[in-house]
């Protein structure tokens, strides 16, 4: 009862829950199992956005637990450096893979590489994400935030799903953001135009991620693969410092460390709790509602969810459940 009460008191107002206080209080009151007690030897994990911030912290923790990592990054030098810095207590052979997630051809090449060289893959972690203050598009004309954080994870998951099914029970985890609470589900407005605002575009993409996580879980229910999304709270990362300088300046004293921010991601990767559920949205080792505001809840309709799924199928050029590609 004390644990439930503490969690509810922290969760009701945003700041205590998302800040360093939230993770410290919950870990202490709930007596969280130490991540150091897990053994991930024999596990093969693909991790995007692994060269800085939350992804880098997660990569080191997962490697320390004995997992074999596919370190995915955009910059060859930084990705190679990250890969070589990881521990290998079980003799795991970590590998690096280069991909520009905003370029769908690059994502397809990444999938081909993983399928060919890592047949034991059992976990995919979609962690890469950036908040851009100026609108950019890729070669296909897709807004870069949406391309990298919505279409690319959809495409990569669809291509890797057969491999994951062969290695069930398997997991697909998506690092979202609490910022998505401010934005409702939209398909026609998913890519902002002249009204572009970086934080709002990011929130719309993150809302789409969380929705797609639930759709994957529902549509692939019998696949042996579970799908979960999560948000890390407010963490002290280079991305936050660069893209939200005012927020970073005022909130720095209460921001979580990258290790604290990545705790639930590593826990969902390691703990069997994740296998007993599907399609949930997590924060600090608890499943959370995906809506806090009535306005966003009203916009989350079955029709709009179907539109989002159909748009991803058309844009990614692959239907994960009939094998069709375009």
CATH superfamily: NAD(P)-binding Rossmann-like Domain
How many helical stretches? 14
- Based on DSSP secondary structure assignment, what is the total number of beta strands? 8
Mean pLDDT: 94
Structural class: alpha/beta
Low-confidence stretches: none
* The top level CATH class name: Alpha Beta
The name of the CATH topology is Rossmann fold
Strand content: 5-15%
How would you describe the oligomerization state of the chains in this entry?
A: single chain
Spatial gap, N to C terminus: 53 Å
The secondary-structure element order is HHHEHEHEHEHEHEHHHHEEHH
Our count of domains comes out at: 1
| CATH architecture call | 3-Layer(aba) Sandwich
Strand order of the largest sheet: 3-2-1-4-5-6-7-8
Outline the biggest β-sheet.
Answer: 8 strands, mixed
Shape: globular
- Radius of gyration (Å): 18 Å
Name the helicity range: 40-55%
């Amino acid at each position: 009862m004390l644990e439930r009460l503490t969690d509810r008191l922290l969760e009701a107002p945003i700041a205590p829950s998302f800040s360093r206080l939230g993770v410290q209080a919950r870990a202490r009151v709930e007596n969280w199992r130490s991540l150091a007690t897990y053994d991930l030897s024999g596990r093969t994990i693909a991790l995007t956005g692994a060269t800085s911030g939350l992804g880098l912290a997660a990569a080191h923790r997962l490697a320390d637990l004995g997992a074999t990592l596919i370190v995915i990054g955009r910059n060859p030098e930084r990705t190679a450096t990250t890969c070589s810095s990881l521990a290998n207590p079980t003799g795991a052979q970590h590998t690096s893979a280069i991909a520009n997630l905003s370029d769908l051809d690059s994502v397809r090449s990444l999938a081909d590489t993983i399928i060919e060289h890592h047949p034991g893959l059992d976990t995919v972690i979609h962690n890469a994400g950036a908040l851009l203050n100026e609108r950019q598009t890729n070669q296909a004309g897709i807004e870069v935030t949406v391309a990298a954080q919505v279409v690319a994870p959809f495409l990569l998951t669809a291509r890797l799903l057969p491999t994951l099914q062969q290695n069930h029970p398997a997991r697909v985890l998506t690092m979202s953001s609490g910022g998505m609470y401010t934005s409702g589900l939209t398909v026609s407005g998913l890519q902002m135009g002249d009204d572009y605002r970086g934080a709002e575009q990011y929130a719309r993409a993150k809302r789409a991620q969380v929705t797609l996580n639930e759709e994957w879980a529902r549509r692939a229910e019998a696949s042996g693969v579970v799908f979960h999304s999560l948000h890390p709270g407010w963490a002290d990362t280079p991305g936050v410092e660069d893209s939200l300088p005012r927020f970073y300046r005022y909130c720095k004293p209460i921001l979580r460390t990258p290790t604290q921010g990545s705790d639930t991601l590593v826990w969902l990767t390691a703990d069997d709790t994740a296998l007993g559920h599907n399609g949930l949205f997590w924060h600090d080792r608890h499943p959370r509602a995906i809506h806090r505001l009535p306005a966003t809840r009203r916009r989350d309709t079955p029709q709009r969810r179907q539109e989002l799924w159909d748009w991803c199928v058309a844009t990614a050029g692959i239907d994960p459940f009939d094998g069709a590609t375009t």
